[in-house]
Write a structure and sequence with these properties.
This is DAGKc domain-containing protein. This protein has 297 residues and is α+β, with helices and mostly antiparallel strands. Helices cover 28% and strands 33% of the residues.
Length: 297
């Protein structure tokens, strides 16, 4: 557990396309900060990811605390600026999926109290080539879906468009051979989906990595091999409850570093398009300082 400094300055990062809850969070948060005479600035993200990243990189030494009001994509933007720094990040989830927040908050938690509180903890991050992810990285079926949505449609209603795209893609999807190596094992065969998880959830609540922990120094790899269409539906249904690990086509293991040697496979991280393989994927231990509920500190 770490305590916040006596004198704090907050940067509030808001995705303007987030749900209506974002404005409620903004109002509650700014009222509390004003009551406490805490200094803060508000910054809204744009649709230019490179410009967003440049701006945030310039803010890493100006603030003690960042608060992200948005979903997993906005969170990923902030994480890539804060990795390896001592700035404390808090999350007010109001995106389409909020998968990372499922690792952090439980029913009854008030995220406002958490981001204003005194409890923080160091957590791990994943790194894919030169880009960080805080939750889950995927390739294969999942990577192709996100790649198909990238820069083609607005981000509004993204969760429902993702589910529709997944259904359409599933009907005609052909597994591709993936060459993967890690300390624990090697694979070189067709796969439906492979995920590298720091957190447990992706795809709007699918528990792809039920054994994942945010601070264990490892990434959890979930490999789902070639299967019939009916089996694919069955496995995806089981992933929602995290009961897929004993399925015949599923392999699951933990490691610190993975290499994908197959070229031109689309990769998604935290629901964002990361580019294509080949890729080196590794766990960066204690890379982010995160505001957490008191029980987690």
């Amino acid at each position: 557990m770490s305590d916040t400094p006596q004198s704090r300055r907050f940067l509030i990062i808001i995705n303007p396309l987030a749900s209506g809850l974002a404005q409620i969070y903004r109002q509650r948060l700014t009222e509390r900060l004003q009551q406490a005479s805490e200094d803060f600035d508000i910054w809204y993200t744009t649709d230019n990811d490179q410009a967003n990243q440049r701006h945030l990189q310039q803010c890493t030494t100006d603030y003690s605390d960042w608060v992200v009001i948005g979903g997993d994509g906005t969170l990923n933007l902030a994480v890539n600026a804060l990795a390896g720094t001592d700035v404390i990040m808090g999350l007010l989830p109001c995106g389409s999926g909020n998968d990372f927040a499922r690792n952090l908050y439980r029913k009854g938690d008030d995220p406002i109290e958490v981001v204003l509180g005194e409890h923080s903890s160091r957590i791990d991050l994943g790194l894919c080539n030169d880009r960080y992810f805080v939750n889950v990285l995927g390739l294969g079926f999942d990577g192709e879906i996100v790649a198909g949505m990238y820069d083609h449609q607005p981000r509004t209603l993204r969760r429902w468009r993702y589910l529709l795209a997944a259904l359409v893609k599933l009907l005609g999807y052909q597994e591709q051979k993936v060459a993967l190596t890690s300390t624990e094992r090697s694979k070189n065969e067709p796969t439906f989906l492979v995920a590298f998880a720091n957190g447990r959830y992706f795809g709007g609540g699918m528990q792809i990595a039920p054994k994942a922990e945010l601070s264990d120094g490892l990434l959890d790899c979930c490999w789902i091999g070639k299967a019939s269409l009916l089996r694919k539906f069955y496995y995806l249904w089981r992933v929602f409850s995290g009961t897929h690990l004993n399925a015949a086509a599923v392999e699951y293991w933990q490691d610190n570093t993975f290499n994908i040697d197959t070229p031109n496979l689309p990769i998604e991280g935290d629901g964002e398009f990361f580019g294509t393989s080949p890729a080196r994927i590794c766990c960066c231990v204690n890379a982010l300082r995160l505001k957490v509920p008191a029980r987690e500190a």
